[in-house]
Amino acid sequence: SACSSRSLLSQMHPMWQEPLAVPGGDRQSPIDIAVPKSVFDPQLKPLVTRYDPRTCQQIWNNGYSFLVEYDDTTDKSTLYGGPLEDQFRLCQFHFHWGENNGWGSEHTVDRLLYSAELHLVHWNSDKYTLFEEAVMENNGLAVIAVFLKVGKRHEGLQKLVDALPAVRHKDSVVEFTKFDPACLLPENMDDYWTYSGSLTTPPLTEAVTWIIMKQPIEVSHDQLAVFRSLLFTSAEEDVQKSMVNNFRVQQPLRGRTVRSSFS
Ligand SMILES: NS(=O)(=O)c1ccc(C(=O)NCc2cccc(O)c2)cc1
Ligand SMILES: [Zn+2]
After folding, report:
1. What DSSP assignment string belongs to 165-229?
2. Which uninterrupted H or E stretch holds 131?
3. Minimum-distance ligand to the CA of 144?
4. Number of other residues whose CB lies within 10 A of the CB of residue 234
5. Is the Cβ atom of 132 under 6 angstroms away from ligand 1?
6. Which neighbouring-strand residues pair with 213?
7. pTM for the complete prediction?
8. Which of 39, 105, 145, 207 is surrounded by the fewest CB atoms within 10 Å?
């Protein structure tokens, strides 16, 4: 799908060696969501997600996370509403997690760390024709973030967990179809925070309207342990490195306001 350009990503240094500074970086992500400072905005609309499981294509280990990629050549899996003025097309989802259940999320809520964080990545298909274009534009992207906490087993996630051993190494790809990402959304889709930010991995472009769901989803310890069995390294490399702690450090708010859809 258009949203995963292999060449660009694989040529980058491991993102965890933070780039020194981002040109004019005053809207970088992730951030801490200081709930008492967030501003209720009654004009925020309900989020509308319409995902077609038939657009699910493959899982790819890109050496930073594993991406579940969707066919984004038509408007079959879309997001609109919430803070968004246009319609956005789902291109992929991926996760960030820690080496243990104590940390792993990129965003925090009043400094509370979750064990992992899901990102559903969409681009503005009303304004642009390709992900590559949208990612260079202010608010060309919309990412829904869902926190993961360890608790009961997530039945919908298991199909994905079972496919992960097939993409253990960087640059491996496996066909993966008929997966409905809606099963990973929390029951409560009314309560979210939203702010203007960036990609959390290089090139860190400031193109993202972030939509952070208040209610986490629960996954089991064992399901999360399978995420940690993935590797940053390709099959050829002689030193294998576990894919863990693939989150970015928190960034300054620089005067931005985080709005909430709930009071
Ligand atoms: N963690 S995140 O959701 O902020 C995120 C989402 C998408 C991407 C991404 O697609 N990176 C690849 C990329 C970036 C810019 C231009 C491209 O052609 C590809 C990176 C981070
Ligand atoms: Zn992400």
Report:
1. GGG-STT-EEE--S--GGGGS-S--S-EEEEEE--SSTT--S-EEEEEESSPEEE-HHHHHHHTT
2. helix 131-134
3. 1
4. 14
5. yes
6. 192
7. 0.95
8. 39
Could you tell me which residues come within 8 angstroms of residue 110 by beta carbon, excluding any fewer than 6 positions away?
32, 33, 34, 35, 36
Task: Quote the CA–CA distance of 63 and 1 in Å, as a whole number.
Answer: 18
Q: What percent of the chain has pLDDT over 70?
A: 91
Closest ligand 1 atom to Cα of 96:
1
Q: Which residue has the tokens 């899996």?
A: 77
116: which 2 tokens? 């992992």
pLDDT tens track for 60-104: 999 999 999 999 999 999 999 999 999 999 999 999 999 999 999
What is the CA(41)–ligand 2 centre distance, in A? Answer: 25
What number is the ipTM of this complex?
0.98
Q: What is the pLDDT, as a whole number, of residue 122?
A: 98
41 has a pLDDT exceeding 60: yes
Q: Give the number of the ligand closest to the Cα of residue 132.
A: 1
Ligand nearest the Cα atom of residue 6: 1
> What is the distance between the alpha carbons of residues 208 and 39, in angstroms, rounded to a whole number?
19
Nearest to 86 by CA among 133, 32, 122: 122
Please tell me if the CB atom of residue 143 comes closer than 6 angstroms to any atom of ligand 1: yes
Identify the CA nearest to 136 among candidates 147, 145, 127, 144: 127
Residue 226 pLDDT more than 50? Answer: yes
194 lines ligand 1 (CB under 6 A): no
